[in-house]
Amino acid sequence: MKMNRWIEEIIEAGEGYLIEFKESLDKSFIEEVCAFANSSGGKVILGVSDRGVIKGINTDNNFRSRIQDSLRQLQPYLDVGIEVKDNLIVVGVPDGNDKPYACSRGFFIRNGANSQKLTRNEIIEFFQKEGRIRFDELKNDKAVFETDFDEKAFENFLNLTGNITATDIYQPFLDKLMENAVKEGFDDRITTVCASMDDLPFEAGEFDIIWSEGSIFVIGFEKGLSYWKQFLKDEGYIALTESTWFTDEPSSEVLQFWQDCYPDIKSIPDTEKVIMAAGYDLIDRFKLPASTWYDFYSHLEKRVDDVSDNYKGNTDAETILSFNRKEIKIFREHPDEYGYTFFILQKKTNK
Question: Does residue 172 form part of some domain?
C-alpha cells in the first residue's frame, strides 16, 4: 500500500484500540507503548494531532535515539519497531509475549481508544490473567476442607465441560479421535459427525461454542462466519484462527505466495471489519507466536523427507510435497510478515 493512502486510511479511521496519534514525543508516549504491549499491540504515529491533522515531526537520527531512550523504560524488554514515513514516525508495538509490561509511570492497558493506568487490584488481576499468579494455586489459609468443601458444587463444576460434537470430512480422523477419547475416559461426552464444514447437518441454535483452528479458510473466512452463525445460540461464541498480515508492506515473494494459495488473506484490522460485518462482536484476539509454526514445520519437514522417495514419478504428490517445502522456506525467511491470529467472537442478538 502506498504511504499516502495508508496514512489517509489511518487518519480517516481515527484513533482506536490499535492506533494512537501523538503530535510530539511527550511523557505519555511510553504509557501508550506500555498499554499496547499489554493489550493486542498497536501503532503510535508521531507527528499527527489528536484530531488527525498531519503536523509532521523531526525524523533525524538524534530524534530517533530519543525514542529509543524512552522505550528503554519498558520492562521487560520488548522489540518495538520504528519506521519513518515521510515526515511521520510510526512506532509499531507488538502484542507482548511476556506480559505484564511496566514503564516508569506504572502499568497501563488499552481501553478502547484510550490508555488506562491499572490500580493495585487491577494489577493483581492482570498478573492472574497472564498466568503470573494462578488463582487455583493460591493457598487459602482460612479454608477448612471438612466444612467448606461442597461436593455438589464440585460435581456441577466437572459437568460444565458439556458435550462436544466433532466434525471432519475424513472418517479415519474421527475414528482416531474416539480411540484417544476412550483412552482418556471421556468418550461419553463426544459425538462425531462426518460432514463438510460448508454442509453441516445441525439444527439452528444448537451450539454454545464453535471452535475451529486452521480450517475456516477452506470455505472462506466471510462465508464460514455467515454460514456457521445459524448454528449458534443467541450470544454464542466462535473461537477460531485466521491467516493475517503482520505487516503493511509484505515482501514480493511472500505476497506472491499468498496470492497463489490464499488471496483472501487480510490485515488484522480488515479481518476485524469482516467479523463485525458478519454480525459478531469481537471479544478478544491475539497473534499465535512464531514458535508454534516452527514446531509444526519441523514435523512437516521431517514427514516430507520421509515420504518423498515413495512418491517419485507421481506428479500430483510431487507437486504437493514441493509446495510444502516452499511454504516452509518462505516462513523461515519471513516469520514476522504473516501468521495466524486467534479471534474470539460473540454472536450479536440483533442480527
Answer: no
Q: Summarize pLDDT for 118-158 with one digit per residue, the tens.
A: 887 777 777 766 655 444 555 566 667 667 767 777 666 55
Exposure on the CB side of residue 4, measured as CA atoms within 13 A: 0
Long-range CB pairs of 199-207 (<8 Å, 24+ gap) are 200/167, 200/228, 200/231, 202/165, 202/231, 203/231, 204/230, 204/231, 205/230, 205/231, 205/232, 205/233, 205/234, 205/236, 206/231, 206/233, 207/165, 207/231, 207/232, 207/233, 207/236
Residue 218 lies in a domain: yes
- Among residues 135, 157, 188, the one where a domain terminates is 135
Q: List beta partners, residue 75.
A: 102
CATH of the domain at 229: 3.40.50.150
Axis crossing angle, helix 290-307 with helix 315-333, rounded to the nearest 10: 150
Q: What is the pLDDT of residues 41-50, one digit of tens each?
A: 889 999 999 8
Q: Do 81 and 206 have their domain in common?
A: no
Q: Do both 100 and 240 map to the same domain? A: no
Handedness of CA 113, 118, 121, 122 (dihedral sign): positive
Domain boundaries, position 7: 3-135
Whether the pTM exceeds 0.85: the reply is no
In a shared domain, residues 38 and 114: yes
Question: What nine digits make up the cell of 38?
Answer: 499489554
Please report the sign of the dihedral spanned by the C-alpha atoms of residue 41, residue 43, residue 49, residue 53: negative
